[in-house]
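Hi, here's the filled form for the chain we discussed.

Project: internal
Contact: R.S.
Residues: 91
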Amino acid sequence: MPEPRENSWREICLVRLSAIGDVAHTVAVVRALQDAFPAAALTWVVGRVESAVARLVPGIAVVPVDKQRPLAELRRLRREWADRRFDALLH
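And the returned structure, exactly as it came back:
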């Protein structure tokens, strides 16, 4: 897979729904993405409880989801993001 050019990714979505410790470790990935792609908008889909940690990272959009209702949340996001496209989805 070729290396993406800095200006090639404008919208990046991260999905990390596991425990709060895993989300805390993912902050380093988010910061690295911000450094590598400063013009990109980052959206982080994360559990409601864990969203408190994600909100501490400046410059990202945090989308909390209810992990106890995965199908309902998937339907909600599909409906809300019907016209939205991401250049990269990272899980």
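Let me know if anything looks off before we file it.
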